[in-house]
Amino acid sequence: MRIGEIAALVGVTTRTVRHYHHVGLLPEPERRPNGYRAYTVRDAVLLARVRRLTELGLGLDEVRDVLADDAGRELSEVLAELDADLARQEAELAERRRRLAALPAAGPGEGEPVSPALAALLAKAPPTDSPAAAKDREQLTLLDATGAAGEELYAVLGQLAADPAVLALYERLDELADAPVDDPRIGPLAEAMVAAVPAAAFAAIPSDGPVVPGFGEALLAEYAPAQAEVVRRVMAAFTGEGPA
Fold it and tell me: How far apart are the C-alpha atoms of 141 and 161, rounded to whole Å?
């Protein structure tokens, strides 16, 4: 993705993205031979996280502390200070405090600043070391921040979160990390993934979501070739562009 594409996806301006680069909140991505920055899905996840924290009222220095390594301040500490400040302000800040109150339940161990609906969904998922499951969680966090998913979709996906069969699908995808793109396991796995999703989930996906040029390509680039082919087929089924 280019800078304009990642900015459109997350809902910020290109000037904001450049400012976050300047102050060190968003690392500079690699550049293409033509000099343009090439952003990945991981860059979009980090940018969306910064946007959500600033929307909660944190200053850029506080956001930097939250994103820092173990030497930084804990998110719970920063949010507690912000909550104390908001409590002294006018009534229109009540909605901001409600969102803050929901953050401690945002997910296992990470305290992600996500919506209450996504927090409830993530809380149902069992602990796992699956890299594919971790990618799925990051992508849900990004969709949550950009408004491309809502409570209706999360409610449907909640039926899958605690299903051991879903975790087995992630593990099958992990097994394709070093496989060739013509591996015979690709087709059956894509079909199994599509079949595992309730029909109601397809209806709950907004048809006018904030998809920008380059996003699908950047998402597939996060996976090894055989894994990317599985994901491509699943995406095609979800968007109605063809069979898995």
Answer: 15
